[in-house]
Amino acid sequence: MAAGWDKAKADAIKILGASGDRDIPMSKSLDVVLQIAMVGAKTYQDDCKQFLQTFSKDCDGQIGPLDNAVSMLIKLKGQIDKDDLGLNSKDKDQLALIKKARLVLSKYADDAIGTIGDASALMRDNKDKLVGSIANKMPRLVGL
């Protein structure tokens, strides 16, 4: 930090030349202000990183169960498609009932899979956008 100020001061003196004012004001005060600002910026940056990590974990904790529910519904749908649902699939009349019942149950499972899957994808997308937005706005600490 001080090296950055010293370089800026030296460059300014080169520009001013021999007749210029070589007494650059506030050099010590500015260095103290810059040090305080850097400590504050670093603390803010650390806090933001910690927040983003915690936020991501919390969101993943909410998204995970949704993804598990979708997986369970997909398995349930597979079972529905194979199950006789308590009737005899060899009987033509009962087979027709089984097929109708399977359609109702499969439609419900498909609707639930779509709704829960959409919610999971939306939550994941919003989390990624928010984390990216905050990360892009965090101060970039450079050697002042």
Describe this structure in words.
- The protein is an all-alpha fold and 144 residues long.
- The protein has one domain.
- It has helices at 2-16, 27-82, 92-137.
- The protein is rod-shaped and about 110 Å long.
- The model has no long low-confidence stretch (mean pLDDT 86).
Strand content: under 5%
How many domain modules? Answer: 1
Shape, principal axes of CA atoms: rod-shaped
> What structural class is derived from the secondary structure elements?
mainly alpha
Helix content: over 70%
- Largest sheet report: none
| CA(first)-CA(last) distance | 4 Å
**Radius of gyration, whole Å:** 32 Å
Q: Provide the low-confidence segments as ranges.
A: none
Output mean pLDDT: 86
The strand count comes to 0
Spell out the helices and strands N to C.
HHH
Total helical segments: 3
Write the layout of secondary structure elements.
Blueprint (H helix, E strand, L loop, with lengths): L1 H15 L10 H56 L9 H46 L7
Helix pairs in contact: 2-3
Q: Concise description?
A:
This protein is mostly helical and 144 residues long. Helices cover 81% and strands 0% of the residues.
